[in-house]
């Protein structure tokens, strides 16, 4: 009399089964998101290599394939927003952002907003930080091809990105890793400016040697 009704084992089994169903769904979603994220990273990396080779047509195809995977992840995130904070998804988005922005910039088509890329703003900022490293690589390739003017334009873009990133001043708890990327970006801008200055000095030195050689050659002909 007056005792609480005991919970039957079958009731607990039902609760556990519901939990298992939920965890199964979460596990399957995680596995799918991991697979899609790896594909985005792989396709974006291939696109970046193609861009540096100036193979824009194939780079566009790779970025388009990566975009399809991004759309798939976003579709899942609309139903399961709790997965939006997963690190591997953010990292994949950063690679996709980096490849997309690099292609547009090298083709002189300007920057693309995070809204147009359909990605969150935080991975976009982190992708911008990484973009500076790829622009440096392209600037160095331009120097090797003796395209100093192009290299100067690229380092100006690098500096523009860095200056704009300086306007973002929030703790790492909100934008994890951002400050480190910004510090690296500053170093890369400075190094690239130094590389271009050295290339210009070498170019001027070569011209002086050529002029001197022509002058001495002309004197020999007179003798």
Present the secondary structure layout.
Elements (H helix, E strand, L loop, with lengths): L8 H44 L3 H24 L7 H20 L7 H4 L3 H24 L3 H18 L12 H45 L1
Give an overview in words.
This protein is an all-alpha fold and 223 residues long. It has two domains: 13-119, Methane Monooxygenase Hydroxylase, Chain G, domain 1 (Up-down Bundle); 121-223, Up-down Bundle (Methane Monooxygenase Hydroxylase, Chain G, domain 1), CATH 1.20.58.2140. Helices cover 80% and strands 0% of the residues. It is built from seven helices and no strands. Helix 2 runs antiparallel to helix 3 (87-106) and helix 5 runs parallel beside helix 7 (178-222). It starts with 8 loop residues before the first helix and ends with a helix. The model has no long low-confidence stretch (mean pLDDT 87).
Number of strands: 0
Radius of gyration of CA atoms, rounded to a whole number: 27 Å
Q: Report the CATH topology name of the largest domain.
A: Methane Monooxygenase Hydroxylase, Chain G, domain 1
Tell me roughly what share of residues is in helical segments.
over 70%
CATH class of the largest domain: Mainly Alpha
- How would you describe the shape? elongated
Beta-strand residue percentage: under 5%
Question: What's the rounded overall pLDDT mean?
Answer: 87
User: Unreliable runs, pLDDT <50, ≥5 residues?
Assistant: none
The number of helical runs is 7
Going by helix content, strand content and strand pairing, the class is mainly alpha
Distance from first to last alpha carbon: 131 Å
Order of helices and strands: HHHHHHH
Q: Can you tell me the number of structural domains?
A: 2
The largest β sheet comes out as: none
Specify the CATH architecture of the largest domain.
Answer: Up-down Bundle
